[in-house]
Amino acid sequence: MVARIFIAILVAGVVGAISGQSQRRAFEWDRVKAIYAFGDSYSFVGGLRGYPKFTFIGDEINFAFTPEELLTNTILPNVTSSGGNNWLQFLTGCYQGSPFDCPKQLWDFAFAGADIDVKQLPLHANFVTSLVRQVEQFLAYADPVLPKQQPDESLIVWWIGINDVSDVVNNRTITDFPAFWDPRWNRSLVQSTRCRQQSNLLHTCF
Question: Which of 72, 102, 67 is nearest to 88 (CA)?
Fold first, then answer.
């Protein structure tokens, strides 16, 4: 059960873009120009217009941001949960400054301390943006203004669940773990589906 939880919730996946009606093109990392990230402290990077030491841009209290605020925002060096560069920065080469100036653009909407959904577990603090709300924020304020990419040039990644797991370890009100976790995982998949169906920007979602 524990293995299933970690595999299902913690591991970010990669799916090749679909072209044409049903033909699937092989995934080519070298063609990817922009990465879009969602999740928790394992994935966030600090931004000039983010909640300090928690996110790249915005928070639950200051949920909206303007096109100018997003497009001129910059990544702050070494503002991650580790105090150094995280896996997304090593992957993209986007360590500081404008995402536009990176080898691969990194648009990071992950928020430190995030759970999947406030309907299932309470926020760690009133300013934390859950995974569900990260997707809502992206669709409302980022998707309409970020440059559009070709189907095989964009990639979305998820890393979520560590806070969800830790929040229930000592929760004695939860006695049926499969019944608790299955809806949470399904909720995460629903957000992926929303991203793919509603976004004008992203062509590759997981």
Answer: 102
